[in-house]
C-alpha cells in the first residue's frame, strides 16, 4: 500500500496518468469520459502540489492538539528521549557510498537535540532501520547517532534501535529497550503529522510517552511557496495521505488507539 501511494502521488504517477489519458483519447477522441479523466488528473495533481492544501489537512486531522515541547512538559525523574527516524538514501560515486538523511529525519534529529538540551535526558534512543523503500547503506538510527555526536551529545548516552521497518516495529523494539532501562519518563520525538499514529502505536503497548513534535524541515518561508505548485507540496501530500492510511491500517490491526490503556480498561 505504501509503495502504491508513493507512486500515485508522484511525478511518475502523474506521467502515467497522462499517458493513460492520451492513449484513451487516441482510441476514442470524442469520449467525454476520457476528457473528464484528463481534467480530473490535472486538477488533482495541481491541488496536491500546492503546499497549503496538505498543510491545512495535516494540521486539522493529524497535528491538532500538539504543541512544541517545553521544560514544563517533563516531570522530574530519569528520562529517555526516543527519536523516530524518517528514512534516508545513499549517494554513490564509484565505489564510495554516503548515507544521507531525508528532510523529515533531519528535522526530527534537530528537535531531539533541542529536547535533550532542555531536559538533560539520561538516554537518547535513535531508532530506524534499513527499509525497502529507502535502502541507505546504513540504518537511519546510525546516521542520526553520528549527527547527534557531532552536535555534542556524548556517545555513551545514545542507544541504537537499527532493525525496525516501520512505526509499529519501532514501538515494539524501543518499548523493550525502555523497560530494560527503567526510565521514569519517555519523550517521543517525530514529525508533527506522524505523532498521532506513533503515540497510538506506543500507547497500545502500555507506554505513555510525552510528545515532542518536529515541524516540517522544508516549511515554506514565502507566500509564493505556499500557493504555487512545487515538488515539496506533492511530497507533503503523499506524507499526509500515508499517515491517514497508516492510522486506518493500524486501527484495523489493533495497533492503534486514540485512548490510553487506562481509559480502555473502563
Structural overview:
- The chain has 266 residues and is an alpha/beta fold.
- The chain has two domains: 2-48, no CATH class; 68-220, 3-Layer(aba) Sandwich (Rossmann fold), CATH 3.40.50.
- It is 52% helix and 15% strand.
- The strands form two sheets. The protein has a five-stranded parallel beta sheet, with helices on both faces. A two-stranded antiparallel ribbon has the order 2-3.
- Helix 2 packs antiparallel against helix 3 (32-48) and helix 4 runs parallel beside helix 10 (231-253).
- The longest helix has 23 residues, at 231-253.
- Mean pLDDT is 89; it is low at 259-266.
Descriptive labels:
266 residues, alpha/beta, Rossmann fold, 2 domains, 5-stranded parallel sheet, two-stranded antiparallel ribbon, 52% helix, disordered C terminus
Could you give a quick summary of the protein structure above?
The protein has eleven helices and seven strands. With 266 residues, it is of the alpha/beta class. The protein has two domains: 47 residues, no CATH class; 153 residues, Rossmann fold, CATH 3.40.50.
